[in-house]
Design goal:
heterodimer, A: 449 residues, alpha/beta, four-stranded parallel beta sheet, 12 strands, globular, B: 261 residues, Nucleotidyltransferase, domain 5, 2 domains, four-stranded mixed beta sheet, 9 helices
Chain lengths: 449, 261
């Protein structure tokens, strides 16, 4: 249906750093694949892991983080389908974490997928696993990877850091016992890394990596904060391709450099009034990972003049934030000086990581709701689309509580069921029909087909 | 002002023609493979019943899952299409002005809608499975070899509670077959089926909260076996308006009469 309503039109233009983002991600996947040919090491672990720590083993150490890899698999539906079949044929239920199943499936098929969808024969086994255990699946995920690799004839040593102490209880200062609990594990982990790789650990590289991570994660928050502008300079669908760098290589200098370039470009877009969506008139945020195979829902939303300006997920999985004295949410200020010793580096990265907003999902739903309310208010959001993501128990935990909290705060909420990594759990037509009903109930009509 | 609402649903197409708030015609027909033809036929029948022709109708609003089929397409030439949720709210408010919660259970979909003054405040729709909708009753009637219209009265004869746990319509049919083999009576199975649907619908509606008055609309509201277990599950009395299966079409006709709403 087309309406004759006069809607303000904003200028739009593609992001100049888009190609740079694509290349960074492409190189990351290929570096992991080819690292042995260059005499380097490769490791596997989650995007949440303390990735700055293995960086002390040398500059030729490459990782593949599991969740982004699972998402990449999900984006290429044919390959994802084969991965699902492989994991289910191996006896694993389809109710488990979808990223984990995609990842296991890739190993079971002995195939590795690159960012352009090219499927390479031979899954590149890691030399070691460096993981943390944030949700019920994270540690188990890689225990099983270790088991699968053993069946393929490779012994892969594994180390997992327990972070169950959670975030600081008042979110303004970190309790020492929590910091020490994680620090001790990281200290032991460094000894373990030296032992299993036979390499001497370089504390200078560790300090560099920690400093890079702090800068990169603060910079990403700065980028997200710029999206408070009306019109929004970025839409969430594009942000997915940008935040991902932090999930892959938050500790690397390329990530810092890219986020600096991006921050400057987004600043310039705000200054010039460049919009992500031409007819922005309704702003939403989402929650949790999207159904990766169906990102077209964001383009459908644009037909109503609706733009998703982000989410706690896109802002807070990588971005680091803090509450200001006036109660507003702002990018976390980086420490005054770069760490100079191993002890300083570990202290710094643990204290920093404990403020990761995405940890809130796991410990206290009210805290997550509060953060979402802050985003709604500061980013001038009209409604929240909650993805009841059946593929991720961790980030969907308490999501119905969040819905209640937001509704009680007077914020319109549209929940929809889906799965970030398994298209069988997502009904595109049904979701679009419901979303249409929701937009209509908000007084929106389709502007264009 | 004469308006029409066309509800092109999964199973039936329904038309209500309204003149100054009064229904001149209410007609429904089974939807065939050719959705446009089914909707056009029922529209023509409704016009005939009202003694009108298309030019007499100032505005037509379509709703239902096939609403876009008739949008600006002859002979109906609907002026606008609105979602079922919006039409339900407007229609229910028309027939039950005190309504705060609308439950619409049709052939393929169940919906719960919180309403204020005929406008949608919040809503929930069942995801994917038909085990909480009318199609489920039809499928189970086939398994029990009884007419679908007999299922409700049959269920009311039972005082036993038999759990039916399958969340999928197909698996639920297997469960019914198991009950048949276990020599459970048709009455008890019919009640188990109605209890199961009521359970699925109520757990969905409770997500948005139940506020009185509660109205039950849609084809399933015609099934007398559905109301008692739903009232029990929701701990609330429920109003079933006259012609409950036409409420969505009525809502569309009401919306057609208020284009600047």
């Amino acid at each position: 249906m087309t309406t004759a309503i006069e809607i303000k039109e904003y200028p739009t233009e593609p992001l100049k750093c888009w190609e740079q983002a694509k290349n960074l991600r492409k190189n990351y996947y290929e570096d992991y694949l080819h690292s042995h040919e260059r005499g380097g090491l490769r490791w596997a672990g989650g995007a949440w892991s303390f990735s700055a720590i293995p960086a002390g083993l040398g500059e030729d150490v490459y990782c593949i983080t599991g969740e982004p890899y699972g998402a990449t698999v999900a984006f290429f539906k044919d390959f994802a389908s084969k991965c699902h079949d492989a994991t289910e044929a191996a006896g694993f239920p389809r109710t488990l974490c979808a990223y984990m199943r995609n990842y296991w499936g890739s190993i079971l098929l002995d195939k590795y997928i690159l960012t352009d969808g090219t499927v390479v024969d031979g899954y590149p086994a890691p030399d070691f696993i460096w993981q943390d255990h944030i949700c019920c699946s994270h540690g188990k995920w890689y225990q099983l990877v270790k088991w699968l690799e053993k069946k393929r004839g490779k012994e892969v040593p594994m180390y997992s850091v327990d972070v169950s102490v959670g975030y600081p209880s008042d979110f303004s200062s970190e309790e020492d016992y929590k910091v020490n609990y994680i620090m001790e594990q990281l200290n032991d982990g460094i000894e373990w890394l030296e032992k299993v790789t036979g390499r001497k650990y370089d504390d200078g590289l560790l300090c560099d990596a920690v400093w890079n991570e702090i800068k990169a994660t603060s910079l990403w928050a700065e980028v997200c904060a710029l999206n408070q502008a009306v019109p929004a300079p970025l839409d969430e669908k594009s942000m997915y391709s940008l935040y991902v760098m932090g999930t892959l290589m938050k500790h690397r200098p390329e990530c810092v450099a890219f986020y600096e370039t991006l921050r400057d470009e987004v600043k310039d877009r705000v200054k010039r009034g460049i919009a992500a969506v031409q007819y922005e008139r309704f702003r939403v945020i989402t929650d949790t990972q999207p159904p990766w195979g169906f990102l077209k829902i964001f383009r459908e939303m644009e037909k109503y003049g609706a733009v998703s300006v982000g989410s706690l997920y896109t802002f807070g999985l990588i971005g680091m934030w803090q509450y200001q004295p006036d109660g507003t949410w702002a990018p976390k200020l980086i420490p005054h000086k770069k760490p100079q010793t191993r002890d300083e580096a570990l202290q710094t990265i643990v204290r920093w990581t404990m403020h990761k907003p995405e940890w809130a999902h796991f410990y206290e739903p009210e805290l997550k709701t509060k953060m979402m309310e802050s985003i709604v208010k500061q980013w001038k959001v009209d409604a929240v689309l909650l993805h009841y993501n059946r593929g991720c128990e961790g980030l969907s935990l308490h999501i119905a509580e969040n819905r209640f909290g937001l509704i009680q705060a007077g914020i319109p909420v549209f929940p929809f069921e889906g799965n970030m990594g398994d298209e069988r759990d997502f009904d595109l037509a049904g979701t679009m029909a419901r979303l249409t009903a929701f937009f209509e109930s908000m007084g929106l009509k389709k502007l264009k087909e | 002002m004469i308006t029409a609402g066309v509800d092109v649903g999964a199973k039936y197409a329904k038309v209500v023609i309204l003149k100054d708030g009064k229904a001149l015609a209410r007609v429904k027909v089974l939807v065939g493979f050719d959705v446009l033809k089914s909707a056009s036929d029922v529209f023509e029948t409704a016009l005939k019943e009202a003694g009108l022709s298309r030019v007499d109708i100032q505005r037509v609003v379509a709703t239902g899952m096939g609403r876009n089929t008739v949008l600006q397409k002859p002979p109906i030439n609907a002026d606008e299409a609105v979602s079922e949720v919006v039409a339900d709210a407007a229609g229910a408010y028309q027939v039950v002005p005190t309504v705060k919660t609308v439950i619409d259970v049709g052939a393929e979909e169940g919906r719960g809608i919180k309403v204020e003054g005929g406008k949608v405040k919040d809503f929930v729709i069942n995801e994917r499975c038909a085990a909480g909708a009318g199609t489920f009753v039809e499928a189970m009637a086939r398994a029990l070899e009884v007419k679908v219209e007999d299922m409700g009265p049959l269920s009311l004869k039972s005082i036993n509670t038999i759990p039916m746990n399958a969340q999928c319509c197909v698996f639920a049919e297997s469960e019914v077959v198991s009950l048949i083999h276990s020599k459970v009576s048709k009455e008890d199975i019919a009640k188990a089926i109605h209890d199961a649907i009521a359970g699925r619908i109520s757990s969905m509606v409770l997500r948005i909260g139940v506020e009185k008055d509660v109205a039950l609309i849609g084809g399933c509201a015609l099934d007398p076996g559905f109301l008692p277990p739903l009232e029990k599950e929701l701990h609330s009395s429920i109003v079933v308006p006259e012609f409950p299966e036409f409420v969505s079409a009525l809502g569309a006709a009401v919306i057609a009469a208020n284009p600047t709403r």
